[in-house]
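sorry for the late reply, my laptop died twice this morning and i had to redo everyting from scratch. anyway the thing you sent over, i finally got around to it. pasting the sequence first so we're on the same page, its 462 residues, then the predicted structure underneath. double check i copied it right bc i was rushing
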Amino acid sequence: MLQPALVEKILNAALESGGDFAEIFVEDRTDRDLGMLGGVVERALSGRDYGIGIRILQGVFSVYAYTSDLREEYLIETARKAARALKGSSGDLVLNFNQVQFEDRHPILQRPSASQNSRKIELMRQAHEALKASHPLIEQTSVGILNWEQKVLIANSDGLWAEDTRTYTRMRMSAIAVDGTQRQSGFRGPGAYAGLELLEQMDIAAEAREAGRIAGTMVKAGYAPSGQFPVVIENGFGGVLFHEACGHGLESTAVGIGASVFAGKLGQQIASPLVTAIDDGTIPNAWGSLNIDDEGMPTQRNVLIENGILKGYLIDKVGSRRMNMPPTGSGRRQSYKFAPASRMNNTFIAEGSSTREEMIANTEYGIYAKSMGGGSVNTATSDFNFAINEAYMIRNGQVAEPVKGATLIGKGLEALQHIDMVGNNLDHGQGMCGSISGSLPVNCGQPTLRVSKMTIGGRKGE
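ok and here's the structure:
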């Protein structure tokens, strides 16, 4: 990492042309990626990336530059080149850096750098064997273990100095089932802000069997109907619907420029009174957690919606300037190659009082979305489109036959208002979220919940 004297020179160079704020982000990251296909190791990669990003602000106007050349003269010249995009002048900046103090909520028990690949391969082989044995129609398996350790330094012209080391581990397991001309996949991908202790403590065989069960079940499923039905969405990664359809619209990246359907609605009833939604970057060892965000601010628990009323947004430094609201510890970036933006960490709908069984029993005819897939959203309108990886019909208050090809279509605001039952079984699922500042680990969570009516895109009418 860089010494304070050099950092001060870089920040001074960045402000030579009239910026009112400058920041550096230094990153030293090591990645390790092991992959197994059909029980055979096919990928064993590792790499290190070291670089620095320099951001300059003038009001809400932002300039960003980055480099992996850490020679002093080159860093200073890079800052000066970036500063030339601005017009103005500034005096000398004399800094007395203040170290950001924070509680480390995420103990790492077994660092990936201290572990041998041989042990990881043993664990991957366990997953492969469980995948193969999970269903007679499984024809292909894929298993991967991804670790990365990231050391960061954030310093800025306000005198902030923050350093942290982050460690992430994830295991990805997928199976493909084949039945004649039909092929379906099943996937599980548990991960955490943790070391290899995550894998040692995990029931790998159970996770793998679940991936295989999904593939084997869905390959024999008929096609889903299309129309408007009640939908019961399972807990855990079912929260990706809220994450995409509503969460991105609550980020100041969109709200601050009026590109969100939620702009200007603070204090208004935007959802069912049963809905309380939270983004929390402090959950110990959670996949989307951080001690400090990528602007050097400690993360926090942000209540976004409380009993259906919009209470807050996710705000980074630029969003804070635009909206005249304090930042929320939500400035995140994939690496030094990206400027930070307001992003989610661990976003979830809080528990209610209903049970899954009550929701099913109170649904005469509808869809049970047991496992959600990916989707897309237009933040300006909240229009969304999501695939359901594992779906079942609900008939006469009971889960019936599996169906494939089901898609959820609608508007985030309408879906929030139509939630009429919220479960008591909160869980979280892990995913990677892509946006303006890159791809980031996030948790999506919720209890099981029911939306009284949603549009289902399928292949047949009923």
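The CA atoms of residues 219 and 243 lie 28 Å apart.
thats about all i looked at so far, will dig more tmrw
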